[in-house]
Design brief:
It contains 17 helices and 14 strands. It is about 45% helix and about 10% strand. It is globular. It has a seven-stranded mixed beta sheet, with helices on both faces. The structure holds D-serine. The site of D-serine has 5 residues, from loops.
């Protein structure tokens, strides 16, 4: 309903833009969206995003703004903060960082001196994020970085991380990942950070909704500072939250975000965030989070039964990594691109302990998740069908080098039927049921 309202309002003014929006609505309805960092936000969350608060500008924090007319912006920001603190158990929340990268940069800016500060975090190809010190990110250029990785079983080795931290003495020790399917032991990370005198930072962007819904252990009280984007499992708008415990940390973070890095916050986003946090406090959201994990585990089990190499042997959260070079002699990028052609949208991704052919843009794996499918109302029994679709598609992909004009499918007729079946299956679910 909200799609129709938005499209018709835009269409009355700009049919060209409206047509693109309409196409995207149709795409999101007709495919199986399995990128683990995406979701379908509720109509209420999306309506708040389009609200009149997007007309309002202001700088500073509630009660301390640099512009007049802030009664309602103060009220909405305080509401979002109150809900974030209640939901995650932290005494302070900053809801102004525009997204995940600015949130992480805000934390580093608060605590580290450029060209002196030391960050220890997970390497990118084992599931870390660009902003965890990758050389192509300013975080890797402005700070000294030590990266840890997974062990030969694709899981974290806390003894090894402790050994490295004692040697490197980071100022900030980062946990929290973009492609790690296992539970994070926040107590262990907090203890290591305290032992070496580092601030502990958990970037829980991927699992914030699972933490809020009780499907993953909380970083509180073990971790000093927590950052997360709000549009993934939390199912809010594109935005970010920074939580902290100590008053001196909170003060430094607030100063780093504004005026250190940003000007005026996006108040409509903050309003939308307040609504998403309200939804996340509900019993329905708790059962949603639990179902996301059950679905991911069911999907992993079905794929492993079919012989797929699932990294770490399964999942404890919303995502799984499949090494398709080991499983099917295919590179991750080709598999992701061809799966999109039949209506399964996931992403190619590096996997730990891959072949030596793996490169960031030419990885051995694919990454998939269940947040979107679960929002559509799918349960464990539907994951069998999803695994069958993936398997049928991959089994029908040609291996080896493919020339530019070659058909990449062994049997194009099978592909045509599969694409139609996937479309019909996707269309049999609404986009938002929880
Ligand atoms: N790298 C993004 C992802 O996990 O999709 C998060 O920023």
């Amino acid at each position: 309903m909200i799609e129709k309202t938005i499209t018709s309002l835009v269409e009355a003014c700009d049919p060209k833009a409206a047509a693109i929006l309409q196409n995207e609505d149709e795409r999101q309805t007709a495919v199986l969206r399995m990128i683990p960092s995406e979701n379908y936000a509720s109509p209420a969350v999306r309506a708040a995003l389009a609200s009149t608060l997007s007309n309002k500008y202001g700088e500073g924090y509630a009660g301390r703004r640099y512009y007049q007319g802030q009664k309602n912006t103060d009220a909405i920001e305080l509401l979002a903060i109150e809900r974030a603190c209640r939901l995650f158990g932290y005494p302070h929340a900053n809801v102004q960082a525009l997204s995940g990268a600015p949130a992480n940069l805000g934390v580093y800016t608060a605590f580290l001196k450029p060209f002196e500060g030391r960050i220890m975090a997970m390497r990118l190809d084992h599931g870390g994020h660009l902003t965890h010190g990758s050389p192509v990110s300013v975080t890797g250029q402005w700070f000294e970085i030590m990266h840890y990785g997974c062990n030969e079983n694709d899981v974290l080795d806390y003894d090894e991380i402790r050994r490295m931290a004692i040697e490197f003495k980071p100022n900030v020790l980062v946990c929290g990942y973009t492609a790690y399917p296992r539970t994070i032991d926040f107590a262990a990370f907090g203890a290591i950070a305290r032992e070496v005198g580092a601030i502990s930072l958990a970037d829980v962007s991927h699992i914030a909704g699972l933490i809020a819904g009780g499907a993953h252990p909380s970083p509180f009280p073990h971790i000093d500072v927590v950052t997360f984007t709000t549009h993934k499992t939390l199912r809010g708008p594109r935005g970010a939250i920074i939580l902290s415990q100590k008053p001196e940390h909170a003060e430094a973070i607030d100063k780093a975000v504004f005026p250190g890095l940003q000007g005026g916050p996006h108040f409509a986003t903050i309003a939308s965030l307040a609504v998403a946090l309200h939804e996340a406090e509900s019993d329905g959201f708790r059962s949603y989070s639990a179902q996301v994990v059950k679905n991911a585990q069911a999907l992993a089990a079905h794929l492993m039964e079919k012989g797929y190499h699932v990294s770490s042997g399964g999942t404890d959260n919303h995502l799984l990594l499949v090494d398709v070079r080991k499983s099917a002699s295919l590179p991750g990028k080709r598999v992701a691109e061809l799966l999109e052609d039949v209506g399964i949208v996931l992403n190619f991704n590096t996997v730990p302990n891959a072949s030596d052919r793996q490169k960031p843009l030419f990885p051995d794996g694919i990454r998939m998740g269940t947040p979107c499918l679960t929002t559509r109302g799918m349960k464990e029994n539907h994951m069998a069908a999803v695994a069958d679709f993936i398997h049928l598609a991959i089994s029908n992909m040609k291996t080896g080098k493919i020339e530019k004009d070659d058909n990449p499918w062994k049997d194009p007729a099978v592909t045509g039927k599969l694409a139609a079946d996937i479309r019909a299956f996707a269309l049999s679910f609404p986009t938002f049921t929880w």
